[in-house]
Amino acid sequence: MSHTIIKKSLLSIAVSGAIAVSSFAQAELVIGVAGPHTGAYAAFGEQLWRGAAKAAEDINSAGGVNGEMIKLIKADDACEPKQAVSIANRLVDSDGAVAVVGHFCSSSTIPASEIYADAGVLMVTPASTNPTVTDRGLENVFRVCGRDDQQGDVAASYIVGELGAKRVAILHDKDTYGKGLADATKKTLNSYGVEEVLYEGLTRGEKDFNAVITKIRSVDADVVYFGGLHSEAGPLVRQLREQGSTAIFISGDGIVSDEFVSVAGSPEYVDGVLMTFGADPTAYPAGKAVVEGFRANGWEPEGYTLYSYTAMQVIVEALKQNDLDPIKGAEWLKSNSVSTAMGVKDFDSKGDLQVSDYVMYEWDNKGKYAQVN
Amino acid sequence: MDIVLQQLVNGLTLGSVYGLIAIGYTMVYGIIGMINFAHGDVYMVSAYITAIVVALLSYFGIESFPIIIVGTLFITIAITGAYGWAIEQIAYRPLRNSSRLAALISAIGMSLILQNYVQISQGARQQGIPNLLSGAVRFDIGDGFVQITYMKLIILLVAFISMGVLTYIIQKTKLGRMCRATQQDPKMASILGINTDRIISIVFVIGASMAAVAGVLITMDYGAFDFYVGFIIGIKAFTAAVLGGIGSLPGAMLGGLILGISESLFAGLISSDYKDVFSFSLLVIILIVRPSGLLGKPEVEKV
After folding, report:
1. Does the beta carbon of A263 lie under 8 angstroms from any beta carbon of chain B?
2. Residue B223 maps to which CATH number?
3. Domain Leucine-binding protein spans what residues (chain A) (predicted)?
């Protein structure tokens, strides 16, 4: 009996020795990358992962962060708040992450960010645009994308100014992001004196929107604004056209994925669809080499890929300048600029970008999108 | 006026699909008194099979729409029917003599297995199939118009033909008589020489086939699906089955149509935010007034 105890303790000494040696040889900086990898929004999780992974690869091959190599942990929140909380706990407790790139859906980012705040982990989201993400005054939360109120402003100004529309129908998917965006657009529209003719929510996960589309026809809308993601926007725009409506369809950055076309069934349906999104992220001179690096690996850096790359750069710069301390890093970010693949980024005291760069894009009949001049 | 008519058309197509799926719930309940919660996922599997068959057919250069839809219907029904048969063999037959709760849990497990199996083997992403048939008929009414796509007309046609064929099989053929006998009294039926195990298998295959018809039609119409698509539509179809009286075949069809039409009218005329609240309130009210559903027979306690 005592024999086994001795054996065990010897073994444990040997094991702990081995661990100490390995950590000495290769110091690692653990950073989580959280986004939806299963479920309907997995395409966006893929964009986030690709961007962060490429950034980590580039930084590691240039010598790492103060000599430490970045180790990424991929975490899947499925765009569900409950799962987001549980993976946030996992990243913080068992993986020992000091920083997180993520999440994607605002409804996941908001609850997860509180766990990161408690644990003193720096979080930079590449994609969550709901105002609440940064409005709660958490000191560890940053984003490298714009806010929905800014996005709504751009959309509403375009609807009133460029399109001169008087009859606007507003739909949303009842989720934090979708409804937040729809509300932001509605608010600005109303401030221009345009009252929406319809304001309704639809159910995420359904595919039949014919009833609400007939209602859009009945109020004779000439613009349909949708706050939501491509998996609902695709069937929605298709059924709108199938019922013979020619209303202009506008949405936000939730539909910026090639899957929008395949879900709609054919490029003819997305022809003329407008969306607000940050100015072409691949067009920054500072990011030319990065974009070429992605293309050399056979991945077109669409949607949020470069945002995720940028988020990783912001995290690394903050840690590098502050002896790898995420809390000091967060404080530092609020008063210093970071040069990234998407140009120089400055944050305000809430963690939002000081300058947002939303512009209008239009989809064409080939299923591609381009900036509207 | 045109708007109400258009909503009726929307509701009719949606409801006929609910009805097709509800048949699977109601027939299985009628014959073994169990809710087959994996049925929505059988529908989901058929959506994937549809996409694969359509891709294969176009790979072999077949472009005529009638051949594609008929071919897809036959192949998808065959494969989905096999799924229905296998599910019964694996998950329910071994539990035939256990408590109802055991079979129910087995059904929920089967539903999770199917979802995860499809998610892992086919990927979690949204899938889409290209538009196969475009064009619509348009009726001008006063200032407005009612527009129905050809695909919607095909949905209505195929759904009602399928329901008609099934009603004929159950009411007029020998197989149908055996099904009804097994439903009324399994023990007596088996004493009279009916292989009730085989009949139960056939009922599962019929239910899965009807879900496959719905899967083909809906997938070709909406073009978009994912591994989770069976959940919402399964719940709606189950509601339709209960609404019409679970266990009753015409009840399932009627329940589907009522649910589809009332959903469309409510969403269209009042509010789409509370569409689902309304559907389920309707269910609660009907169950209060008629506990066995619209066409269901009151349960007789056997002494």
Report:
1. yes
2. 1.10.3470
3. 30-368
pLDDT of residue B33: 87
Chain B nearest C-alpha distance from A214 (Å): 7
Confidence of residue A20 (pLDDT cuts 50, 70, 90): very low
Q: Which residues contact A41 (CB under 8 A, 6 or more apart)?
A: A79, A104, A105, A229, A231
Q: How far is CA A83 from CA A39, A75, A133, B278, in A?
A: 12, 10, 18, 29
- Measured between beta carbons, the chain A residues lying within 8 angstroms of B7 are 211, 214
Residue A271 carries which DSSP code? T
* Residue B127 belongs to domain spanning: 2-289
Q: How many domains does chain B have?
A: 1
Same domain, A131 and A167: no
Q: Give me the interface pTM, i.e. the ipTM.
A: 0.84
pTM of structure: 0.81
| Number of domains composing chain A | 2
Mean pLDDT of the A109-118 span: 95
DSSP bridge partners of A34: A75
**A225, amino acid identity:** Y
Other C-beta atoms lying within 10 Å of the C-beta of residue A193 = 8
Among B1, B2, B5, B6, pick the best mutation site for testing chain A contact (most A Cβ within 10 A). Answer: B6
Q: What is the mean pLDDT of residues A120-126?
A: 95
Chain B, nearest residue to A44 by Cα: B125
A17: confidence class by pLDDT, cuts 50, 70, 90: very low
- Which structural domain range is residue A272 located in? 149-279+358-371
My answer on whether A134 and A208 are in the same domain is no
